[in-house]
Specification:
alpha/beta; TIM Barrel
Length: about 200
């Protein structure tokens, strides 16, 4: 597998915010958003076997693992990694942009889908019933309305999180109050992005 970085931190956004987690960030993406806060993951990864990945994460005293990207589902051996994590009793959290269909696995996965806008609308191919948390990166109220087209059939609105589009603390503080009000207006969840608030663009924190 091609891996960008592996590190131990705390989940800074979405439904699982505040949980200590090991992050396995894969290399490569298929959408390339201009506002991406992890553009460095698009290329120049390190080739690692699943055995070496498991050896690396064993260094951390944590049983929560977030597999993210880039787009993790682009990796050929992603399902083998997920199954290996499950066999070793790790709680698996998979982050995806939802543009690639997710296969069924024997491992219980907490699926976090953060769709991105492609050609004027959010691109989603993942099955709705496979998603535990929807995270939408929001800059304008029009973005919220486009998100509604994706989540309007999701019964539990506590699964829907709106996040301010920002790559720096300054950007975040400017847009966050607006996203806060839109979350109130449309009756969904507001997600902070604590890693950006606390550390800006610093990596592996």
């Amino acid at each position: 597998m091609e891996i960008c970085e592996i590190f131990y931190s705390v989940q800074g956004e979405g439904a699982f915010i505040g949980r200590p987690m090991i992050f396995i960030r894969t290399t490569g993406c298929n959408i390339f958003c201009s506002f991406c806060d992890s553009r460095y993951s698009w290329e120049k990864g390190k080739k690692m076997s699943i055995e070496s990945i498991m050896k690396e994460i064993k260094k951390f005293k944590c049983k929560n693992v977030c597999v993210t990207g880039g787009e993790a589902l682009l990796q050929k051996d992603i399902y083998k990694l997920i199954e290996t994590l499950g066999e070793k009793d790790y709680a698996v959290f998979l982050e995806t942009n939802g543009s690639i269909k997710l296969k069924e696995t024997d491992t219980i996965i907490n699926v976090v889908c953060s769709p991105k806008i492609v050609n004027g609308k959010f691109k989603v191919k993942i099955r709705e019933d496979m998603v535990d948390c929807w995270k939408f990166v929001i800059k304008t109220e029009d973005d919220v309305k486009k998100a509604i087209e994706v989540y309007e059939d999701v019964a539990d609105k506590e699964q829907i999180w709106l996040m301010p589009q920002a790559t720096s603390r300054e950007e975040y503080l400017e847009i966050a109050p607006k996203v806060w009000e839109w979350a109130k207006k449309y009756g969904v969840m507001f997600s902070p992005r604590e890693h950006i608030v606390l550390f800006g663009q610093k990596r592996m924190v």
